[in-house]
TrEMBL record, chains A, B:
Name assigned to this protein: NADP-dependent oxidoreductase
Ranges of residues in domain Enoyl reductase (ER): 18-328
UniProt keyword list: Oxidoreductase
Taxonomic source organism: Chelatococcus reniformis
Cited Gene3D superfamilies: Medium-chain alcohol dehydrogenases, catalytic domain, NAD(P)-binding Rossmann-like Domain
InterPro entries membership: ADH-like_C, ADH_N_2, ER, GroES-like_sf, MDR_fam, NAD(P)-bd_dom_sf
Length: 331, 331
């Protein structure tokens, strides 16, 4: 009999997430009921939002202690009792951190296979459309504007910057460490990159944005958001995508300059979730595909192998150790 | 020879504004140059923003120590060297806190006289259009939504709530003290009012907004904004008009929940200034006029008499002692 290895969240972290909050368990492989399919998990995608889910209800229910850790994954149908799904189909679903999951049809998004398959996670399923809609529909960046993106070496940030370049913007990334900053400029074609861990971060940010900032794609919140607010131009727009600086702490802090600077500079700050743009998903996918084919958009992946590495993969992502989309290969 | 009494800002306040920051001086009445008019100041309007101007450059230059305190006023042309302006014309201008001012034509907005004349300050010149555009163009409140407004007993807030009622919204005001709260409900027709100074403010706010909050018109920032963020509904909108809780202090504080709650609830926060909507000013004025004529919109004024009372008028406004538009009659 085949076992289903799972990673459980054993305790809700109060402060920093650590390996002690997880444990590896074995369960039996579930049997799909009518309307369900049995999935074999291929790749699990890691996101800073995974940590936010432990803090309480967000755009989904909170992940509770004692249950399988939640997470979006690419999976293959190995048994189907749901119409519309056949053995061999590849789907995106919140399978959680485990080797097998039985899920109802409505929890699955069927995807056409691409080469490499991991692009479904690193580009098409979440990161690409998030970058695309946040930049173009929420912040409405246009050619000639200065766009700043934080967590710029991450999966979403690295795509935001490249899409902004494709659209003719002046692009500055904010990332942790000189090496990542060099990579953004030398490999991804950003116009500038600023190291938020450097002592002279504010000075660097000012130097990199001589015309101020028109659009800020915010993945981090906190101090970096505060610093950017002071550099924003009149009528600037801030697409609020995430707040990773505030997820892995017991003491989230407030942002000064809100709402004062919003009034003075007539700024717009707007939160969004990629699911809100489902209706336009095909347009985004077509653009992303064509840009990759034309060599204008590089997709960076950071793949670890083995279900057991999932806890450390997330812990490391929260401290900024990844470059591009962090993925754990499970099967 | 007639003297021109003036109130100077003698020192930029670091913490709370007090009478010691002002002094009364006498100057000579200026002579208008070519292209200028000589104005006799009739009424000075007080605004929380007057205090913000002392903190540094906002949407206007900072008010500097040693100069006449700035302020918007209703004034009459008593000598004209500018084409388009005749003796007897009434204008709105930043004359500053003094009895006479010589200003160029481009600094003046000529206004048609209304009865009472003070409505030009309390309704037409600033407060009315600010309430109107912030609620209807920035926050885009529509019938059936729950609208919350802070500093609700102030000049802008009291109009915001009444306009929202006219538009069919469920309206809750936030104000300081039980008496103001009763006035909002009994006299202005708000559906509810919450006392932010009460120990059970959060509980009161929850009880007054059983369906959550769709639109928040924010005049105060700080703790009240933070409390409201937690009650906002999905896709809610916050019109950022001011941050009076943060002006009169040496230690402005950050707002928690930004940007986290903006992402989770897909909220939009947007700052604005009434001048941005100049192109639609006539539409707003016509609506405001018709609502007053129909008895649907009450204009509350709080008039003090005598230039020398201006410092205390502003100090008192910052601590919330006014109800409706605070005006000082100068001439």
């Amino acid at each position: 009999m085949v076992a289903n290895r799972q990673i459980h969240l054993v305790e809700t972290p109060k402060g920093k997430l650590g390996p002690e909050h997880f444990h590896l368990a074995e369960a039996t492989v579930p049997a799909p009921k009518a309307g369900e399919v049995l999935l074999k998990v291929l790749y699990v995608g890691l996101d800073a939002a995974n940590r936010a889910w432990m803090q309480g209800a967000t755009y989904r229910n909170a992940v509770e202690a004692g249950t399988v850790m939640a997470g979006g994954a690419l999976a293959e149908v190995i048994e189907s009792k749901a119409s519309g799904f056949a053995v061999g189909d590849v789907v995106f679903a919140d399978t959680g951190w485990q080797e097998y999951a039985a899920l109802p049809a409505e929890a699955l998004t069927k995807l056409a296979r691409v080469e490499p398959l991991t692009h479904l996670l690193s580009l098409y399923a979440v990161s690409g459309p998030t970058a695309y809609f946040g930049l173009l529909k929420v912040a409405r960046a246009v050619a000639g504007e200065t766009v700043v993106v934080s967590a710029a070496a991450g999966s979403v940030g690295s795509l935001v910057g490249q899409i902004a370049k494709i659209k003719g913007c002046h692009v500055v990334g904010i990332a942790g460490g000189a090496e990542k900053c060099r990579w953004l400029v030398d490999e991804l074609g950003f116009d500038g990159a600023v190291d938020y861990k450097a002592g002279d971060f504010h000075k660097q940010l000012k130097a990199a944005t001589p015309k101020g900032i028109d659009v800020y794609f915010d993945n981090v919140g906190g101090d970096v958001l505060e610093a950017v607010l002071f550099r924003m131009n009149m009528k600037g727009r801030i697409a609020c995508c995430g707040a990773v600086s505030q997820y892995d702490t017991a003491t989230p802090r407030g942002v000064r300059g809100v709402p004062g600077l919003l009034v003075v500079k007539r700024l717009r700050m707007e939160g969004f979730i990629v699911m809100d743009f489902q209706a336009d998903a095909a347009v985004a996918a077509a653009d992303l595909k064509s840009w990759v084919a034309a060599g204008k958009l590089k997709v960076q992946e950071d793949v670890l192998v083995g279900l057991e590495h999932l806890p450390q993969a997330l812990i490391g992502l929260l401290s900024g150790e990844n470059r591009g989309k962090r993925i754990v290969k499970v099967a």
